[in-house]
Design a protein that fits this description.
43% of the residues lie in helices and 15% in strands. By secondary structure, the chain is of the alpha/beta class. The protein has two domains: 244 residues, 3-Layer(aba) Sandwich (D-Maltodextrin-Binding Protein, domain 2); 94 residues, D-Maltodextrin-Binding Protein, domain 2 (3-Layer(aba) Sandwich), CATH 3.40.190.10. Helix 1 crosses helix 4.
Length: 364
Amino acid sequence: MKRYLWPNCASRLLKFFLLYLLSCFPAQAAEMPAVRIPFQSFKRFQSPAQAAEMPAVRITQAILNEKSLALWIGVEQGFFRKHGVSVEIIQTRTSTQTIAALASGEIQMGGTTPSVVLNAALAGMDVAFFCGIVNRADGDFMVAPGIRRAEDLKGKKLGVQSIGGGVWSLAMLALDHLGLEPTRDKIFVMVVGDQSVLTQAMVAGRIDASYLGYTFSAILKEKGFPALLDIGRAPIPYQGLALVARRSYLKQNPRTVDAILRGVLESVAFIQNPANRDVALKSLVKNLRLSNTREAESGYEVLQWLYSLDIKPQLKGIQNMQRLLAVTNPKVATVKAEDVVDEIPAQRVEKTSFYQELLAHGKR
């Protein structure tokens, strides 16, 4: 029997909340049944054993690319447990589902990006980013062979994972940087699936463009697909994958929150240690469902500069996404970006000897 993330008694409330959030995003996307995956129970990544005396934290995320490696490694290598917390990573289809699960109280934290969090705050949720796993833009804006200039994208099909999620956000920032606007330039935004499905859709010619993390963009480049923009090298302020929780939870559970931060930090240090390269590659292959370690190498190499031990959320990146969202939904501008950021947990951990030792070791 499939196990769903929230109980039936809350289903109506959550459906209403989901519909409200979705209504906050531009209504310019179309479903693409040919390449969608039927919904199944959420994919879970768990520690081999969970100690009853440890507080349990369930973290949902929709992002499925190399950026999530710090969370997977934290579970697989036992870093979260080492610091006194039992973590379960739950893979959802969309970031909207992540926020809905957080609203239901069935999970404690979510890994997501600014767009859905800003809209959740607009709806009255007391949510805040407290850990920036990736504090900059990254990835490639991939296009079909034959598309050489930004103007060539007018009238074409752009694939995304969901409206308002991380893939959508970075695709919109790429278009903005290239001087394009979906409605004005008749760029048809299509909900296709996660990045593995988007990659397949590009190869099949079902879509003409998509944002992809470096692991999946490398696969397309080998097949002759060009990157119209390397987003990681463009001067685009952005808050990438970050952990979010209710402010009330952050205040009531400081030790558990600190344990999560320590686990993430130790995972980052582990990944950036060349001695752990093979372990990191194997984790990417398993969790991204790749064919071999060669396909994971580009994503691993990117994490060497994408990850940092500075895990405070980036306010400027959140404000940049807010600016773009406000173009189609002016109400988003009424949210104070500062209200969806809580730097206190990261500042607390940065004062510890544990953090100073990590920094010192990283400089060797």
